[in-house]
Write a structure and sequence with these properties.
Length: 253
């Protein structure tokens, strides 16, 4: 590859963060910059913030950008926790124009897929073949699926129906917060969700990510599932790192 540094931007409902990435270490190269997501989080408003972040670092190489959306061929097809105007937006074209660089230097991908790429390359998925699922527990539940290390993009398993409910409405980390649940009260909801998932796709490994992965020792031991579950390793930097990896590889789907 020859390029040891890359750049990633991770767009979330509350914050947009980006920075230089050491592609050999799989870690941020220096500090990241985080800017509060504009409200409303329209494509133009968000693109302005992305440009501000990229310009701050004087970066002129390929840029990877994550969106909390299903992304195919650079176009957003859903919008979770960002403005509905994203649906149907050619995000790759938007960022290409706003950053003043060719479209082939921009890679846009789903945020959970980006985190998964980072975990498989540098984190808890290293050396793991078979079917691996990353689950990110946050406002909702994001998912990334890998078969023998190859990404199967845009899975939306956080929206599986579990006992008549959208899974993430019962088992996301935000539900624990909103309802004031203890780890012992929340974890059975996660177990029930994973049981449904594992009966459908029979994974070999589940990597648990999102903010709650920092407290893995409090709840992973309480899970009642048959699949091996491990905590994500890269924590909140996974999206930035994965985006930079995808951009450096010119990943397209």
């Amino acid at each position: 590859m020859g390029m040891t540094r890359g750049f990633g931007v991770d767009i979330g409902g509350s914050g947009i963060k980006g920075g230089l990435v050491d592609l050999e270490a799989g870690a941020l190269d220096g500090e990241r910059l985080r800017i509060i997501t504009p409200q409303p989080s329209t494509p133009d408003a968000v693109a302005d913030v992305v440009a501000e972040i990229v310009e701050k670092f004087n970066w002129d190489g390929p840029v990877g950008v994550t969106l909390p959306c299903v992304v195919k061929h650079g176009i957003a097809h859903s919008a979770a926790n960002v403005d509905q105007a994203w649906i149907g937006t050619d995000a790759a074209e938007l960022f290409s124009q706003r950053l003043g660089r060719p479209k082939d230097q921009i890679v846009v991908l789903n945020d959970a897929d980006a985190a998964g790429i980072a975990e498989m390359r540098f984190g808890s998925g290293v050396g793991r073949d078979g079917l691996v699922v990353l689950l990110t527990f946050g406002t909702g539940i994001g998912t990334a699926l890998f078969q023998d290390g190859k990404l199967i993009p845009n899975t939306e398993f956080g929206h599986l129906e579990v006992d008549g409910h959208d899974a993430e409405k019962r088992a996301a980390a935000s539900v624990k917060e909103d309802k004031g649940l203890t780890w012992a009260e929340w974890t059975p909801r996660v177990s029930r969700y994973v049981n449904v998932l594992e009966d459908l796709i029979w994974p070999d490994l589940v990597i648990a990510g999102g903010g709650v992965s920092k407290k893995a020792e409090k709840w992973l031991p309480l899970l009642e599932v048959r699949t091996e579950v491990v905590a994500a390793a890269l924590k909140n930097d996974a999206g930035i790192v994965g985006a930079a990896v995808a951009a450096a590889q010119g990943l397209r789907h």
